[in-house]
Amino acid sequence: MTSQTNGQFDRTPLIAGNWKMNMDHTQAITLLQKLAWTLDDAKHDYSRAEVAVFPPFTDLRSVQSLVDGDDLRVVYGAQDLSDQDSGAYTGDISGQFLAKLGCTYVLVGHSERRTIHGESDELCNAKIAAAHRHGLVPVLCVGEGLEVRQAGEHVAFTLEQLRGSIAGLEADRVAELVVAYEPVWAIGTGEVAGPEDAQEMAAAIRAELAGLYDAETAARTRILYGGSAKAANAGSILKGKDVDGVLVGGASLDAEEFASIARFEQHLVTD
Ligand SMILES: O=C(CO)COP(=O)(O)O
């Protein structure tokens, strides 16, 4: 899947909306319908930019019914999964359940899980393995906090998270993996990393993967930027040659805004 190109990009861009803990299952239907209609009206070509949403767990069954019933081209995933497959893990959700609900993707190691729930790189590594056991594509989130950025250690910090989270992964798994660089200081703050910052980190991640694996594998991995992404800045962020999409939080709750991000090619900033 990730070896596709759309003619302009080396990899098919992925525009992903992380709804976080917003939207109950009835609101989810309204939002997803509106998103699909807006994209249809705009004659969105899904082969040029894939569109994915990440609703709360409790919405997934409704999302599945809508996507299947109306033949929507939007794909979807969950915001987290357990590293275990079944058993006495109260409150946790198995990758098996997510696969059964038609999920394509699953977020792993979002910074809000790393900070609020203390998730470590080792746990993310186990969650990636769990995702793979059930045929889900992990979207691994990495990124530094403000203090690390101010100390100029953001690249080293982020690459360490990456290495810890993907340890032991085989090359073909890395090639299909999605990595989302989400600097914590830019999440929900209105602060957006500059396009140069996004490109700098995406290039560093790709170079690291090339070193750990090989250039061909690294050339297939999709690397997203996340943190206050919106229609007004998507065009410049996606100009970076190693930036293959965006992981959008707040702006993905507005169907028109999110559809406009998915249509970023119309406002790509060129020199
Ligand atoms: O965390 C994010 C997406 O996963 C980014 O959130 P915002 O777009 O709201 O800053």
| Rg estimate, integer Å | 17 Å
Distance between the termini: 30 Å
> In the CATH classification, which architecture applies?
Alpha-Beta Barrel
Instruction: Count helical runs.
Output: 12
Strand order of the largest sheet: 1-2-3-4-5-6-7-8
Subcellular location: Cytoplasm
Binding site for substrate: 18-20, 188, 228, 249-250
Enzyme class: isomerase
GO molecular function, one term: isomerase activity
Quick summary of this structure?
This protein has 12 helices and 8 strands. It has helices at residues 25-41, 60-69, 95-100, 111-116, 121-133, 146-150, 154-166, 171-176, 195-212, 215-220, 231-237, 255-262, and strands spanning 14-18, 50-54, 75-78, 105-108, 137-142, 178-181, 222-226, 245-248.
Walk me through the structure:
With 271 residues, this protein is α/β, with parallel strands linked by helices. 42% of the residues lie in helices and 14% in strands. The chain is built from 12 helices and 8 strands. Strands 1-2-3-4-5-6-7-8 form an 8-stranded parallel barrel, surrounded by 5 helices. Strand 2, helix 2 and strand 3 (75-78) form a beta-alpha-beta unit. Helix 1 packs parallel to helix 2, helix 5 crosses helix 7 and helix 7 crosses helix 9. The protein is globular and about 45 Å long. The relative contact order is 0.15. The model has no long low-confidence stretch (mean pLDDT 94). Bound molecules: 1,3-dihydroxyacetonephosphate. The site of 1,3-dihydroxyacetonephosphate has 14 residues, from strand 8. 1,3-dihydroxyacetonephosphate is lined by residues 18, 110, 182, 187-188, 226-229, 247-251. Homodimer. The active site is at 110 (electrophile), 182 (proton acceptor). InterPro entries: Aldolase_TIM (IPR013785), TIM_sf (IPR035990), TrioseP_Isoase_bac/euk (IPR022896), Triosephosphate_isomerase (IPR000652), Triosephosphate_isomerase_AS (IPR020861).
